[in-house]
Amino acid sequence: MRRFARFARFARLDRVDPVDRADTVNRLNRFALSALLLAGLAWMPSLTAYAAPASGQPTPAAAATEAAHQAAMEGYLYFYPLVTMDLTRRQFTHPSQADKGAAANTFLHGRTLPQAGAVAASPWANPDMLRSTGWVDLTGGPVVLSVPDTQGRLSTLTLLDMWTDVFATLGPRSTGTAKSNTVIVPPGWTGTLPSGMARIDAPTAYAWAKILIQTNGPADTAAVHALQDGYTLTPLSQWNLPAQSQRVKSDPNLDLKISVREQVESMPTDAFFTYAAALLRKHPPHATDQPVLAMLRRVGLIPGRPFDFDKLDHPAKQGMRRGLRAARERMAAASGASLRSLNGWQQETASVGVYGNAYLRRALAAQAQPGAGLPEDLSVLLLASDSQGAPIDGAHHYVMRFEAGQLPPAGASWSLAAYDGQGMPVANILNRYALGDRSPLLYNADGSLELRLSHAPPEPEQQANWLPLPSVGSATLLLRVYEPLPALLDGLWMPPPLVRDGQEALPDAASPVAQAAPANKP
Predict the structure, then answer these.
(1) What local confidence, expressed as pLDDT, does residue 5 receive?
(2) Could you give the angle at which helices 314-334 and 60-93 cross, rounded to 10 degrees?
(3) Phi, psi of 476 (to 5 degrees)
(4) What average pLDDT does range 422-444 have in this prediction?
(5) Which helix (H) or strand (E) holds 379?
């Protein structure tokens, strides 16, 4: 059940990516209850009893073990995203991945919108956007990111460093929609850039680039494909030169069959910290990481130097092994604790995309969905139960009523999508998988909006507002809000409940929060 809470926690970033994630989406079957239960859990560190002299002071061996325990526990949380990102990068850029990956400095484009029954469909696919993704390799110097003129179309390009922090976004909200060439520069680079090119300094030697481009249905995909092809990554050393074939390095020690998460969480203590120390030599820590780095120095893990676990004495080895286990237990206990629940909806309340020194939070984000973007670009809320707390069942008829002025507070767009119990789109006679502000919805005379959800179609005059549900099994709804306004970002607005015909919504103790939402246009 924890798997579902982990997904819900990062749904606002639409962490499910049909293109760049073979290892993500450990699926959500029973998540609503799980999220609520886990939200109440708090991790309490276990106390280890050590033999101490009569003075009450720990023995030197016990003190060394405890110091190593604390260093490894905090170090595991600190390094978890770095190790996860590197394995993700290596799997994606491996030459054997074919259409599941791409070479460095090359985008892989998702070309199709979700369809029920599609071969190799990805769970929780976005019905509004086509996606592209690529890994930027800055080890050989700067790389030029070329962006086409999207002519006002909603799009977002997010750049993440190897610590999973967003360090730049390009799109209407930040840089506009005009054509541009921007140079991504590695740490410590001091060369001269071509005239007229903007500069973005990457914190690490690799970066992950993720693109969303709005698509107005199947008839619009050809136009979006042309835009996708306009996004390119070119090493600055090759700028204005004929295209050169890339030399792809083999990676014989990489396991492509086991998911990244499973690999990270099954690593023994020595392998994990040896790998992490090697990555720390390539990717500088953040300036604010000094406290945890000082703690790691106690066990000989120093930035820029190799780490040799075998050189530690026995108490330190034992302490590090216990610390790693404690960190994993801590992550399991804290999963879902930052979720807010109202009207049956689940919303993440902790930071997403930029984490500062919140290492536990950052590790949980990487565990659930590495590569989460900023909530200011896209926020996603999740619903798996009706107003009575029962699972959503397509055999019933439901109504979701937005009062006048209480539509999702979107600066750009919003949509409500339905999925079956496996996160797949629902087959239906209209081939409709979502409703939103771009749909030809029918509003009531008072400005309110009633969406109808069921498996069986409603009367013809109500089908404009009908969102089909699966015929069997439970359903899950995802509300995506693009460029959300402060009411949503600040927690002052939540969606209305889903009410089954013949029933009324149960009063929610937090309902005044929803009533405080400002008006927004239909």
Answers:
(1) 42
(2) 60
(3) -130, 140
(4) 96
(5) strand 378-383
